[in-house]
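Researcher: Next entry in the queue.
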Amino acid sequence: MPQKRRKLSNKTSKTEVAKPPPLPQCEGPKLDPFIDYKSGITFLRLLSDPHPDAQAFVFEVLIGGKSYALKAFKYYDDEEDLLGLADHERDEAPLDHLDYYCDPFYNECRAYGKLIEKDLNGQVAVRCHGYLMLSAEYENELDDRFDYLDWDRPSEEYEKPVSSRSPRRAIVKDLVLEENIWKPYIARRMLRDLRKMRELGIYAMDIKPENYTGNKLVDFSVAMTLPHFIFDVKPAFQIQGYMNEDLGAFDAMMQDQNVKTKQRAFRDYDTMKKLRSYKSW
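Model: Structure for this entry, 281 residues:
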């Protein structure tokens, strides 16, 4: 017999919960909290592959009677922020809040914050409705519903009472279930969307079919959105590689999907391959 779906309240106490601030709290674009940030959430099904290397889990949910896609992020180890930075680059990096520029959750907040700021939310990428903080109670429910989901919590977190554990951070988006259509005329629209984001200083850095749904980009978990410290500390040739990464990946994606089009995002493919070799920090 299937388990009964439970709607858990997202309130953490009986006292009035203050509206959360826009995130991240640093220079640059920010994402506001979901308008119904105190509402209960009903989890319907897991949409993403529960791969242990995934940065988040995506669920179909009901909030206030409406269907959404909710992307719940795993615990992020901030020690990863320093990987790939040379000693002299670390001296110039904002070490006190490096995670604001590297954490997958904050990467999405900054990218969507820029799209909303420029009134392009839902136009060049799947619409975002804000972020939520999920109490640790949700983890227990989701583990029961979908077997065990590895949230990468450090062991000391599990020594605390559930009510004292740090919340899971999540982003609420439109629920888009349409499959991608790989046709030349749609590819042209997708490329226009990608170029528009680049004009705004949003570099997705992970263009591939599984990061699109209904032919709109839905994943910004490794995106770089200006202003970004990495553009101040890396050499010019490497920055150029970052800026052109999406173009080469877009062309490779269209080739892999057998889209017959003469239009190319990056015209000099040999140069693109050289630039992509400098992608890593």
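Model: Residues 236-256 form the longest helix (21 residues).
Researcher: Noted, moving on.
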